Amino acid sequence: MPSHPPPNPVGRPVSVVRLDPLRRWVVIDKPTGMLSVPGKGADKQDCAAARVRAAFPHSSGPLVVHRLDMDTSGLLVFGLDSAAQRDLSAQFESRRVFKAYTALVAGVPAAESGQIEVPMRLDIDRRPLQVVDHVHGRPALTRWRVLSIETDRARLRLEPLTGRTHQLRVHLANIGHPILGDVLYGPQPATSRLSERLMLHASELEFADPCTGERVRVASAAPF
């Protein structure tokens, strides 16, 4: 019996925020619930990378530069050729890229701003969960600032100075202000009221244009 062709894994067109005039890179606004790259299995092929590929079929990319958690929305940059991908990846690795996030957290911090310096590592028994480990963990640093107070919760601006997996989620939970909607690190009932999504959005991204070297700054308002 002949097999049926697999369904088209790509959904609606991706939301383009900034496209390089030479089409060497593109910044998109990833919605919550979408993978950054394909996962394992036919049902996990629809992702940000696949949608960019569909939107720019004549490019030699897209090539992944960085990722966002599936539940995190916001700005993602892709290289559309290998040279741009290498340049952008090197910027991320050497921490020459500026990133900022907007989050809604449970409770109201006692201060207007601060930083969280707590080492982290993978919980090998509960992948992909991350845990705080002051002995074996890798250094992780997050700066935060209160943008507004909304009764029993606060809107924060977060700047991760390191790029650990789930860093912002672990750090905010560690200081007693888990991100609302975080089913992994936010204990109930703190996240139950806003559990329809993780209230975390990649809202600012700044990097050097791989072609000109000029700084490119892109912003996206949080949808919550």
Write structural notes for this entry.
- This protein is 12% helix and 32% strand.
- The chain has two domains: 16-94, Pseudouridine synthase (2-Layer Sandwich); 101-200, Pseudouridine synthase (2-Layer Sandwich).
- By secondary structure, the chain is mainly beta.
- The longest helix has 12 residues, at 82-93.
- The protein has three helices and twelve strands; from the N terminus they run ββαββαββββββαββ.
- The relative contact order is 0.17.
Strand content: 25-35%
Q: What is the CATH architecture term of the largest domain?
A: 2-Layer Sandwich
Structural class: mainly beta
User: So how many helices?
Assistant: 3
Write the layout of secondary structure elements.
Layout: E1 16-19, E2 25-30, H1 48-55, E3 63-64, E4 73-79, H2 82-93, E5 98-106, E6 113-117, E7 120-122, E8 130-132, E9 141-150, E10 153-160, H3 167-174, E11 200-208, E12 215-219
